[in-house]
Amino acid sequence: MKALDPIEFKAVSAAVSAGARQKVRLGDMLVATGLITGAQLQSALAEQKRSGRRLGRILIEDGSTDEESIARALSSQLQLTYLELTLDMVSVRVVKRLPEVQARKFRVLPIDEIGDVVRVGMADPTDYQAQDEVQRLLNCEIDPVVVTETRLNAVLDRLYSKSEEITGFAKELGLEMAGDPASGDGAANATVDDAPVAKLLQTLFEDALRSRASDIHVEPQERKLQIRFRVDGALMIHTEAESRIAPAVVQRLKLMSGLDIAERRLPQDGRFVAKMRNQPIDMRISTMPTQFGESVVLRLLPQGAQGASLLSLERLGMPAPIFQKISEFISQAQGMLLVTGPTGSGKTTTLYGALAEMNKPHAKIITVEDPVEYRLPGINQVQVNDKIGLTFASVLRSTLRQDPDIVLVGEMRDRDTVETGLRAAMTGHMVLTTLHTNDAISTPMRLLDMGAPRYLITTSLRLVLAQRLVRTVCQECSQPHPPTAQEESFLRSVLGAQHPLAGLQQGVGCANCNRTGHHGRHGVYELLDMSPAVVHAFNNDDTGAYMAASRREIGELSLARHACDLVLAGRTTAREAMRVIGRVVE
Q1: Is the Cα dihedral 220, 226, 227, 231 positive or negative?
Q2: Do 247 and 354 reside in the same domain of the chain?
Q3: What digits encode the pLDDT tens for the residues 509-568?
Q4: Which structural domain range is residue 36 located in?
Q5: Is residue 163 a contact partner of residue 228, using CB atoms and an 8 Å limit?
Q6: If we measure between CA atoms, which residue out of 421, 327, 309, 429 comes closest to residue 375?
Q7: What are the residues facing 477 on neighbouring strands?
Q8: Which DSSP symbol is given to 82?
């Protein structure tokens, strides 16, 4: 038998390889495996023809099947490995061999390298054209494995972070300013759309969105410009650059938000909208003069996907008895619900969750806020402006002449606002508002200190909800955690000496959580119902009796108890509960 020369051998190998590739029709395969019915397939195909979307995505969105089931069926049919992709599995060195544009275009990710073969995760392993193109770009043989698109995109977002690109833009801007000393104030650069400062900020915003940051802090230091992100309530350094670019960055932000770029001695507040990933992001900006220049803080409020920004009451994670009482309250016609807690504890989200439940065609809803954080259709929202006399109290008085059924007041800041809000709740309106107090029990006392009459408080105030946010344990790196002596003392002081302490978890730190052990946050709640017993004790001007009656009314619906329940459920750590609740047992 004649031996094949190398060229003939390659041609035969390619032909065999092409023949081994199975032509898989996803719909037929899912029907054959019993994941969907023929009727579901026909319906999805009709929708695909109408909209042009991918068949798999249509089947997932209409509930016919789920992403993991499709991926497992594909791996079985094609005899490929199915991989539950996580960030820790991926070699950064191998990933950098494939540009982000191609990775997202072909929905693939180089995972690792064994010898001369690169293992590549694919959301669609039947896309043989993508396989060939990726193999050409990597210039080596690939071993495709099946991954879900959700996991793939999550890992892509984390791996292709823009921090290096941001640093590059910062250096480019620094060199440009060094070459032109006259532009040291940044004014010229700030007005050019394609200047390095514009590229730097756009990339910074995109990276903040990828990182789930709630705030961006731009802080000039003596020898550097420090940029930090607040993620899950904790600040982390993202980028450090030369201090000389700080004026250009600050002036660009001022121009975007319509602030006075010539005023550097006084704090200023503003807002603007940036579009990222086809999603509008409302940016609230605050500037403040510091020793080394103006410090800027940006609050990111996604507006394009209200479902992601605003959670329904049911999804906030309240204990069932608290959720039931609040649901019963918002079905009534009048009264006041006060939500208390420190800044950044989720009070506005809770109130808007309640508003979303009450937002019906038959209800007139007006909000008075500073600033308007979320925008809901069908609701009349008023932005307070103290500079022109448009204060909470003045707007609230005018609001009551607009025949509202429900009024949301962003914050009770002074006696006038408190009294007007309480009288509105007493005269047939539903009033939702916030106040800064440590817990639910001290809230009526705080209203009294602000000058509200005692009878008005007990007549109008129905429920007081105190809340905090605790960081949740990262599910990618969580491990069982035996409590320390201090943590055990804290848990037993709340739960009781005989309560079993099982189920505690702690994140050890991984790439998914930036080595913090935490990923995401969960609400912690406490509810005080102004019951007849509590009202009677409060009216008698006996602080001790009122405190005792309030504690009995709250019972196990306290902040400390809910936090400890989350610890035992493995959702957060005892240390995090102690930090947020403010109780450290020596």
Answers
A1: negative
A2: no
A3: 876 777 788 988 999 999 999 999 999 999 998 889 999 999 999 998 999 999 999 999
A4: 20-65
A5: no
A6: 309
A7: none
A8: B
